[in-house]
Amino acid sequence: MCSGFHQAKWTKSKEVLEPTVFELSKEGKTGILPLPEEEFFKKLYLSLEKKIPEVILRQQKPNLPELTEVEVVRHYIRLSQMNFSVDQTIYPLGSCTMKYTPKILQYIPNLVANLHPQQPEETVQGLLEILYKLEKWLCEITGMDRFTLQPAAGANGEFTGVSIIKAFHKFRGEGGKRTEIIIPDSAHGTNPASAVMGGFKVVTIPSGEDGCINLDALEYALSERTAAAMITVPNTLGIFEKEIQKVSKLVHNYGGLMYMDGANMNALLCKVRARDMGFDLMHLNLHKTFASPHGGGGPGAGPVGVKGELKDFLPVPLISKKGNKYILDYNVPHSIGKVRSYYGNTEVLIKAYIYIYMLGFEGLNKVSDMAVLNSNYLYRRLIKEKKLFDPVYSPGNVRKHEFVVSLAEVGAGKINVADVAKRLLDYSLYPPIINFPLIMKNCLMIEPTECETKENLDGYCQALLEIMKEAETNPEKVKKAPFKASIGRLDEVKASRHPILSWKMFLNKMKG
Ligand SMILES: *Cc1c(COP(=O)(O)O)cnc(C)c1O
């Protein structure tokens, strides 16, 4: 795959160091083509410069690189090739659903890019109509009564939800009493973090042998201190919580609310609704289930949906319809306030709107069929080689959009799962999430999504099996991978504690 192609290099060795634009710069080079009216522009700039007060004029030329246009384009294209992307290769991030984004979804949001968020309502009726309809569709998909589109990510949505839970209990005079949120041990790390940020104590409950919530453990954890249970369905092992309605009943019996982490709805779209499972409120990750690339922490949208009286606590403004006008609606009696500026992350919201619009109910239903089929196909093919992968929780049972497998003796002794992930890069394949959920050791969490063909899945499977074989015959090699990528093994702690993100930081580092 992709032989002959080599990535831009960024290593310590001088000969192969990819130059920065500053190093490529030569005085006098320029990317601007001489225009026929050049004299005209010169005069214009000069006359403008005269209008700028002396004190704020630059005293010296800014230190900018000077290159031709073609040099700049090639430089950045090369740098972009240091990254993997879903447009290049399968990107099977478990839990984080990185699916291909149809190009039309990238194009249409540009059409509204020139709107200003402070424009009067009557001049952005088209945009408001899109957001209004998107909310209606999200309500239909989940069974919730209203959604706020403001939160900019899943975690932002969780914090919004937790704040609503808090405000709701406070309003009912139980604020001081309901101080705990129950979260299963397989949960995404943002769940406990959001609960703690909202001022709650987290009560963790263990998963049963089938990977699902253990009802006895739940019952033991429940009390009049329970504010809510935060539950991911399907859970992060890719297993549907088959007792979810019983769980909801138990939590409700104790006066708690049911919060659904709906970050990944890829297995549930048009199959089952949060409301029917017994949830009172939830968030969706539009940037996962409804496309939108979201590398490096953004951009995202994590709308929060609520049922019944909880809608009186949503952030303001909501988008409502008055006569035939769309309005920003501040009439929310117990609103928790704002959780993000303006309309939310409009670009991602519009992408989700087009995604739903194009697919319709039938299409979304099929997305979920294909996502589950793809994940189970790959799962079955991998676990058939029993020696290689050793699933812990009810092995062989149907998974939903994703599955988790862990390395058996072969890997466990000689190599670990990070070595496998690094070796995959040499096959031009993006590695899955590793070492998550925390309840499984040395594991890979794989979510192929509905977009991949059978050939792609077979290729991925083949690569993993080859790596496992190599781990037996030549473990030292696997431990040194990757060989073809631009960077080998990063010092991950150092990279996150002391990041060098700009030319200035780079120069300072060289000086010091
Ligand atoms: C991704 C994810 C989140 C957090 O969403 P962000 O947009 O990354 O903040 C929460 N829960 C689950 C299950 C997720 O997969």
Would you tell me the overall average pLDDT?
A: 90
This entry's quaternary arrangement is single chain
Small molecules held by this entry? pyridoxal-5'-phosphate
CATH architecture of the largest domain: 3-Layer(aba) Sandwich
What number of structural domains do the residues give? 3
Order of helices and strands: HHHHHEHEHEHEHEHEHEEEHEHHEEHHHH
End-to-end Cα distance, whole Å, is: 42 Å
The CATH homologous superfamily of the largest domain is called Type I PLP-dependent aspartate aminotransferase-like (Major domain)
State the helicity in percent bands: 25-40%
Features:
single chain, 512 residues, alpha/beta, Aspartate Aminotransferase, domain 2, Aspartate Aminotransferase, domain 1, 3 domains, seven-stranded mixed β-sheet, three-stranded antiparallel β-sheet, binds pyridoxal-5'-phosphate
